[in-house]
Amino acid sequence: MTDQAVERLAEAAGISIDWEDAGGVARRVSPESLRLVLSGLGFACGSEAQCRDSAAALAQTAQPSCRVLLAGEAITGLSGTGQLVLEDGSRRDLDLSSEPRVGDIGYHRLEWSGGTLSLIVAPPRCIEVAPGTRPWGTAAQIYGLRDENPFGDFGSLADFVTQAQKVGSDAVMMSPVHALFTTDPGRYSPYSPSSRHFLNPWFADAGRDWFEGDAAALIDWQAAVPAKLAALRALYAGKRDDPAFRSFIAAADISLIDHARFEALHAHFFAASGARGWQDWPERYRRPGSLAVAQFAREHADEVEFHLFLQWWTDRSLARAGEAAKGMAVGLVTDLAVGLDAGGSHAWSRGEELMLGIGIGAPPDAFQAAGQNWGITSFSPFALQRMDYRPFIDLMRSAMRHAGGIRIDHALGLRRLWVVPTGASPLEGAYLRFPEQDILRLIALESHRARALVIGEDLGVVPPGFRDAISERGLMGMRVLPFERDQAGDFTPSAGWDEQAAALTSTHDLTPIAGWWQGRDIDWREQLGAAGDREAERAERVADRSRLWQACEDAGVAEGPEPAPDQPEAALDAAIAFAAQAPSALLIVPAEDLFGLDEAPNLPGTVDEHPNWRRRLPDRADALFVRDDVSRRLSLIREARKS
């Protein structure tokens, strides 16, 4: 078989054979890697005949049963007459030969001589910040919020939101709340969920008296999760006959029921054998529709119902936090992870929607010479088109529920993802293209329906034109202070940052400003024995501190001598004021910066070496927001964000 046949199939599948790395160097994916990626995507390519058959299967996907149009865009390529069945059930006759235009946004159906076509009509842009306003907010890791318990939850979030609103905050961006593996306390990374459609019951509000002992500065998930689940079981015993819960169960659809069954099965096999995912279960339980699963559900009906209760109660808890944020200009901003664990609930119950033979990650760059495999997967672009985008639409709706905004993690994946075949090295991966235009239009439509802002994390190796494309649809990009530099490495004036963006001082993957000023990130790399020249990094940090201080002086938010490395407070105040001056539509100052902390929630590239996703805030929200240093920073923010 010739390599040309494989390359033709790869191009038809949307795999980029030629690409450009972070350094601008042209790269080409080898035929061997193309074969691995195609096979992982389910396209046989071991012979010329297999390539032809796979190409024919792809051609079927290229004849979609769905079109996603902008409001007022013409319906082209069809002839004869038809009837447009609008979402509200009304009907409209159309002369398709005249290329009619549809202005009604929504999910419609076109019936014509060629069959039935789903017709989705989207507004041109997402919901956006109200003209003439310059809202600001903070970001919080939910588990890190302080109360009497060992980790924060939606009850803690409601308290935090209330206190933030008192000081004028317009938004609270929060860490992901996707369902993890409920009975496995070792799986606590919020970016490796079991399902993004359902919620993490650990965050359900179980009151303030479910934990005995001291709440430490670092969360002990192994001790805390069983205690929380015990409290939730007691709550379930008292509420199982609640009419609202019984109505919830009666209305449960198959996806929710399957999720509850997965949770019960996972708890059973995890306790019995340490099985981490459904692939480790006995064969007869690996399909949700099997007789064995049905029998298990009957025999463990109370356990399945408990997991249904967890979803009901967790959603109610999040709704209460959302209600607490109703007085804010924006409110809660949820976080949509880029992918999910292939051993989890979604993959077990609806694996046909996903790339189960593929992981996603990042290509090699200056920081990760071997590339990255994040150990997660995501939607198959072919399945999305084949299923009229229903899985993606459902995901958007679940993410926007109870929220005034949403942050899309690794938004570059709306255009392309670096896909890595299972068992292969990231070096053997390739970029896979997604139907970006349709997806962006769907986001705009769901944004309007939920009245929710959309922020796309457009950081990293940004494809040419991508930022313009998302801006055209009303998505905000992210402008993060440490990354806003010119070619010489100087910090660019915040007055020139994009208006169509959210300005941030840092993110959960970055050392907070105070820690950056002190060099805590360099200290951690030294402690962990990471590759690199620490002395050179410290020398560069000396220069970078001066660059940041100079930029703040030029902006009129700093004066006097540059603060010493071990005295970051004045530099932190100046950095916050500097970012607050940006014309960006929204300002987000993470809690770590607002409260002057110096350690990051997460250190990328580590698992157990650094206490990722375990750090807590130093005090309760009602005490933190009234501290003198915090009040000073809040005054700087409010002054700079005056419209």
How would you portray this structure in words?
- The radius of gyration is 25 Å and the shape is globular.
- It is α/β, with parallel strands linked by helices.
- 37% of the residues lie in helices and 16% in strands.
- The longest helix is centred in the middle third of the chain and has 24 residues.
Mean pLDDT: 96
Oligomer: single chain
Number of E-type strands = 22
Percent strand equals 15-25%
Placed side by side, the strands forming the largest sheet appear as 19-16-13-10-9-22-21-20
Structure classification? alpha/beta
What portion of residues is helical? 25-40%
Quick recap:
With 643 residues, this protein is α/β, with parallel strands linked by helices. The protein contains 21 helices and 22 strands. β2 and β3 (26-28) form a beta hairpin.
Task: Give keywords.
alpha/beta; five-stranded antiparallel sheet; 643 residues; eight-stranded parallel sheet; globular
Blueprint (SSEs and pairs):
Layout lengths: L2 H10 L2 E2 L1 E3 L5 E3 L2 H10 L7 H14 L4 E5 L10 E5 L5 E5 L10 E7 L2 E8 L13 E5 L13 H13 L4 E4 L3 E2 L15 E5 L21 H19 L3 H8 L3 H20 L17 H9 L1 H24 L6 E6 L8 H6 L7 E5 L9 E5 L4 H6 L3 H11 L4 E4 L7 E6 L8 E4 L2 H15 L2 E4 L9 H7 L4 E4 L20 E4 L8 H6 L1 H9 L5 H21 L14 H12 L5 E5 H4 L26 H4 L3 H13 L3
Parallel strand pairs: 4-8, 9-10, 9-22, 10-13, 13-16, 16-19, 20-21, 21-22
Antiparallel strand pairs: 1-18, 2-3, 5-6, 5-7, 7-8, 11-12, 14-15, 14-17, 17-18
Helix pairs in contact: 1-2, 1-3, 4-9, 7-9, 8-9, 12-13, 17-18, 18-21
